[in-house]
Each structure stands twice: as C-alpha cells, then as structure tokens.
C-alpha cells in the first residue's frame, strides 16, 4: 500500500509535471472506483491543473474547476505516460480504473491489482468534501505536530501502539509498512498499549516517527512513479523482511499474520527476545 512517503513522491511528480496542463479526457473504467457524482467526472475536461497536494494518503490535483482526488488503497498505483496510449479501455477487462489525458499528449492511468477493489476516486469542489479527508488526524511531519501534541493523542488510549499509528483519524499518512519501521527504530513492541508509554518511550517513538518518515520522503522525492515502489522496499529494515537478519542486532526478523496483512518486528530490538504469537497458528490450536 502506498503510504505518506510514496504518496508525497507522486504529489511532487504530478505537481511538477502537470501544473499548467489542461485535462482533455477523464475516463472511468471501473465505475465502482468513482465515489462522487456531483460534480460529474466530465467537469474535469477543459480544466487546467493548478497544483498537487497530499492529505494523509489522498492525492489532490487542484484545477481551475473541481478537484480530482484519489486514494490508491492497498493495491492501487499511478502509471504515468509521456505519450498516453491510444488503446481503448474496456471496462471489466483491465486493471485500469481511471485514465486522465492532458493537452500535451501525456497522461496517467490509475490501476488496481487483485480482486478486492478499494481504490477510490473523487471529483469534489473542496478537499474537505471527501469524507476520508474530513476525518484525518494531524500530519506527523507538520511542524505544528509537536512531541507534546503526539503525547496528548496517546494519553488514555488503551489500544496497541501499532493500531494507533495506523489509524488515519489519529495520525494521517502512516500505514502498515511504516508503522513497522517506526516501531523498530523506537525499539517498541507493536503490542504495547499507547497509554502505557512513559515520557522517555514517547520521546523515542516521536523521534523515530519523525526521522523515519522524513528520510523516506527524502528518498521518494524526485523519483518518477515507476521507481517509487522499489525505493520503498529497499529502505525497509524489518517490514517485508521476515526470516532476514535485523540490520541493527543480527536477530531474525519475525512476522505476525492477521486476516489480510502481517506485521514484522525484531524480537531482540523490540520485545525483549519474546516471540509474538502467530495469530494463524493460535486459531488452529483452539
């Protein structure tokens, strides 16, 4: 799933490449991906791109007309073309959910792999008209989001810190991968209750979150969409590295599996050597 750093990379690329261009076509190939009807998708045609912005994991292309806003969800991506293909999109026969063309011949497709379709496209007068944006918590790299503001969000939450970091209504932009990386850098178990963290642990977690995301955003900056996924994978210390060696202590990276995802962690760095139970095995033993 694209998270804040990759989304910011896409925003930077789109802002630089599309600002000043006029939309000549906006075609929806997967009607379920379009979550709004007013303004209609056709309202984008003839509008000029005025900029690009990020709201959590939402990408916002502002125009002289409405905003084109999209969320790539778990399996979505943006495919950029300097010369947009002339092939006809056949609904139901392609992974393409949306195609946008510009007056210089360039354009992009929003694609989604797999059978579970969650990619979402919105045409809105204002970003706050999108419910997911209206519910977002603060951006963790906003200068106004201080250590004390972070501590206030954690206070009283009897929720595992992994879930808190991933909850977009609490903190915007962090998903499964970067929450693993942040917790590893902070030497914190994913199962630690947020309310149980002391001042030193909050200091360490806030510093890890800021550094991890800042470094990842810098890595993504300037890269074209086709290179962002590989850059993300190369930067991971534990996420997606089950069975590999922890680069900090040399222990083996472990996983805990859930219904539709997993988390990765280092026992030595994060849990005092304790191996966390695999939820799949626990269910089989009941």
Automatic annotation (TrEMBL):
PROSITE patterns: FPG_CAT, ZF_FPG_2. The keyword DNA-binding applies. Keywords: DNA damage, DNA repair, DNA-binding, Glycosidase, Hydrolase, Lyase, Metal-binding, Multifunctional enzyme, Zinc, Zinc-finger. It comes from the Bacteria. Its cofactor is Zn(2+). Residues 237-271 form the FPG-type domain. CDD domains: BaFpgNei_N_1. It catalyses: Hydrolysis of DNA containing ring-opened 7-methylguanine residues, releasing 2,6-diamino-4-hydroxy-5-(N-methyl)formamidopyrimidine. Residues 2-119 form the Formamidopyrimidine-DNA glycosylase catalytic domain. Pfam families: Fapy_DNA_glyco, H2TH, zf-FPG_IleRS. Belongs to the FPG family. This is Fpg/Nei family DNA glycosylase. It comes from Microbacterium fluvii.
